[in-house]
Structure formats: structure tokens, C-alpha cells
Amino acid sequence: MRNRRRRNMSPWTVMMGMILFLTPVICYLFSLHDTQSRLKYGQWFKTIHKQRYYLHAMGYIVIIKWKDLTDGLNEPIKLRVGHWTDSVHGLEGNAVHWIQTVFENDVLTAFLNFHYLFVYLFLIYVTTVYFAYTNDRDMTDKVTLNYLLIYAIAVPYYLFFNVEVTSSWIPGMDALLYHDGWYSTFYATHDPLDNAVPSLHVAIPFGILMLNYLHVKSSGHTLKEWRHYRYHMFILINTIVFIFAILYLGIHWIIDIPLGIIIGGIGALFIHHLQPRLRNDYGAYFKGVTREKVRKHVVVEGTILLILFAAIMGAINHQDATNDDQASFRLGPGDTVQDILSEMNPKYSVTTTIENMDESISLEYAIITVNLAEGGFADYGVDWSEMQGLAEYHCTQRVACTSTLLPNESIDLKLSSPKVYTFIFFHHPGDRGVLEVQVESNYENSDNSMAKAVALSLPSLYITGFVVYRLYRLNNNGRHWYDSRPSHTWEEE
Q1: Whether the Cβ atoms of residue 151 and residue 66 lie closer than 8 Å to each other
Q2: What is the pLDDT of residues 295-324, one digit of tens each?
Q3: Within 13 Å of residue 395, how many CA atoms lie on the same side as its CB?
Q4: Which of 162, 217, 371, 477 is most buried when burial is the number of CB atoms within 10 A of its CB?
Q5: What are phi and psi of 394, to 5 degrees?
Q6: What phi and psi values does residue 439 have, to the nearest 5 degrees?
Q7: Which pLDDT band holds residue 3 (cuts at 50, 70, 90)?
């Protein structure tokens, strides 16, 4: 084996270092023009208790657990829900490949890989701290809820409308992020690689921008007059970088951008209209709530929820009926793509069926646990011979960890993935043609996965119904769409 350069620090270590070092720097720099608003050191614990900011920290813990649960369901239900990548590709073609080809260079790739992961996660955290540090209770509430609820809104689309990343479907499209060895383990354990639509790298920062706008608008001011305008622009600039990065790095499709904006907008509107209630700014939480109002909410929002649910079920049934003829990956000459098996209880296994759908090209594959695959990546790609060697050397499966499938050949592999994530790499060894591969994984003990996925999706459908009905009521009463006052105050006016 060739010796590969290993970085001593994990992505998680770098992330924690950035948080510890850059959070006070960002908070200090963006409040230089407004030093009077800064929270004094001696008031930190008093303010945390008074404003109940400890609940915000608990919210971050909740969303981490929520994400882990959602990601754990993604693979077990994929056998039934399939994916929609061919439809998206039919709409867009290879436009993102052109973007990557025009701009690709190693310096830009290294910067965007770093920005995509670290700046994104850092912004989610530091934005909450910044607003708390500058003594803005309302915005602290809203940006914390932004991460929690926007992810919740995206859950049904991730689970039931799977779309493979562009580098797994467009021949010649490089997985510049996922084939950077240092990041490979992190992403393999946090990103199923088939929930491309919508992009949370667009939805979450756009949600913050939208919340900023709604907050300022409802206060009767403009963004340029707002004391946080500099920080708003900081978020805006980074959002633009995210949009370019997700296309360039071989991750997202163009359609992910407007869909991410829609998801972010729904979340921002829900949070903006809910937060005053949560803080009892206009009386007790249930003030103005009557039996008639509850009935109308249940009927209207419940109807919207049922319509969305019916649409999801219809999409699932359509995919269930057409999955057999659908490719999972498309590879150009020399391309390598990967599937990921979720970690499982050691008592259970997964039966993975791999089918070479081409009539003339052979398919090579290699199976290796995620934590042992880093050495097989080089120059933002996969060194196939090296990865094959690693897979053979570290093989713990009861089947061959490297093999070749002849044209139109398929194989059933009973695999174990006890408490670890496992890569299955697929490689096009030829010099011509597009090789299509179908992969289906049947997980043992996954009988309740679909029911759990539906249950996790219901909050998203309710939130959408709430926002639609809220905007309707505001319009029907001649009020601005950004008016966040509870409806009982309208009657008082």
C-alpha cells in the first residue's frame, strides 16, 4: 500500500476549534458599530436564565437526534420509495457539469469543500450566539427555531423524494467533495448522498435572511437602517457562495436552489408568526383561542395536510411500481461512485442486489467500511486500484469484497454493517459508453421504517398548512403578510 498523507485532526475537531476561536471574533467585529447593545460579561448567566436561552441549546440537541433518526430511515425505505433522479436530470440535463468543467481548479475546490462544511455549520451556531450577544431576544429565538423547523419541513422530501447527487448520475461529473478523503468519513456518516432535493445549504441561510427581512418589515423599518445590517450582508454573501458550491462540487441540482428557497421561506414565515405567541408578547399563549377558531384551524390545516399526504402516498406508489426498471447510478468511462449502507444492529444484515444493466460493459465493485476507505481517495477522486487493495485487505464480509459483474449480470450479497457505515464503490473500467447500475438493499428488521418515516413527516405537512392558512387569513382581513400579531389583537383593533 502506498503511504497516504493523513491529517491528524478530524473535521469535528476543526469545527469545534472554529467555534471556540471565531465565535467571539465574529460577535465582536459585527457589533463594533453598536457597542451599547452588547451583553455585559456579568449579565450572561442572568440573561440566559431570564430569556430561557437554555431552551435554545436543547433545541439543537433535539434536531441532532431528529436528523440521526431520519438518516437511519433513509436507506431501509429506499427499496420502496426509489428515487426521482432521472426526472430531475431529464429537466436539467448536464448544466451543472458545465459549471464544474468551466471553473474547476484545486484551489477553488479546497476552499469550497471547507466552506461547504465548516462555514455552513459554523454559521448555524454563531448566528444564535451573535443575536444573543447583541441582546436581541426575538432574533435569537427565530434563528434557533430556523434550523430546527426548516430541517423538519425538509424531512418528507428527503425521505420520499430521493434524488441522487449529481456526481452519481451525470457521467464525468466529479464528486469533488465526497472524494476528498479527509471529508469522506464525515459525509458518509452524515449524508445519505440521495437527499439532494431540496438543498438545506440554501434553505437554512435563506431562512435567516427571510427572518431578518420579516422582522425588520414588521417593525416598520428597512434592512439598511437595521443595526444588524452588516451581519445580514455577511449571511447573504455566504449564501451566494453556498449556491455556487453546491453546483460546482457535484452535489446538488439547479432545481434544489428554488426548492430550498421555498422550504426556507415556509419555515421563516411559520417562525415569524409563531414566535410572538411563544413569548406571550400579546397576552397568555392561549389568549383569544376559541372553540370556533380551533375548529377552523383543524379543518383547513388538516385538509391541507391530508392533500399533501395523499400526494406523497401517490408518489410512493408510483415509484414502488416502477422501481424494477430504474437505474441507481450512471457512470462514464473511468468513473467511480459509491453507495452507503447504514450502520445496523449486529444481529441483523442487509441483502444488497447489484445489477449491471449494460449489455456490453463490465462493472467492478468494492466493499469497505467507511473508516478504512480514506487512503483510497486521491486528488479529489478515487484511486481505484488502491481502493480495491484496501477493500481486499480489510474485508470482514462473508462474501468477496471486490469482484466484477459481467454485462446484464446481477448478484445478491448478504452483508453486515454492525455499528459502522459501509461503502460499496462501483467502477466503470472501460473507455467508452455510459454504464447504468441498479442497487437495491433490503434491510432486516425494517418493517416499521415506513410508518416511522410517515410520522416524522407529519410536522412538515402541518407547518405548511399553518402557513398557507395564516397568509389567507391575513389577506382576508386586509393585513400585511408579514404582520406577526396574533389574530385576537386584530379584533381588539
Answers
A1: yes
A2: 999 999 999 999 999 998 998 888 877 777
A3: 15
A4: 162
A5: -105, 15
A6: -130, 125
A7: very low
* Cα separation, 151 vs 203, whole angstroms: 9
Q: Which of 217, 210, 216 is nearest to 265 (CA)?
A: 210
Q: Helix 449-476 and helix 256-278: axis angle, to 10°?
A: 70
Q: How many residues does the chain have?
A: 493
- Domain range list for the chain: 11-322+450-492, 327-446
Task: Please state, in angstroms and rounded to a whole number, the distance separating the CA atoms of residues 269 and 271.
Answer: 5
Give burial (CB, 10 Å; 0-12/13-18/19+) of 74: buried
Enter the CATH code of domain 327-446: 2.60.120.680
**Separation of CA 190 from chain center:** 9
**Treating both helix axes as pointing N-terminal to C-terminal, what angle do 200-218 and 137-160 enclose, rounded to 10 degrees?**
140
Digit-coded pLDDT (tens) for 341-357: 888 888 888 999 999 99
Q: Give how far Cα 485 sits from Cα of 267, 273, 288, 365, Å.
A: 17, 7, 12, 58
- Confidence category of residue 194, pLDDT binned at 50, 70, 90: low
> Rounded distance, CA 19 to CA 14, Å?
9
Express each pLDDT in 368-414 by its tens digit: 998 899 889 988 899 999 999 999 999 989 999 999 999 999 999 99
Burial of 230 by CB count in 10 Å (0-12 exposed, 13-18 middle, 19+ buried)? middle
Contact 188, 423 (CB under 8 A): yes
Residue of 43, 72, 24, 33 lying closest to 453 (CA atoms)? 72
C-alpha cell at 67: 436528523
Instruction: Please state, rounded to an integer, the average pLDDT across all residues of the chain.
Output: 89
The residue with cell 479546497 is: 110
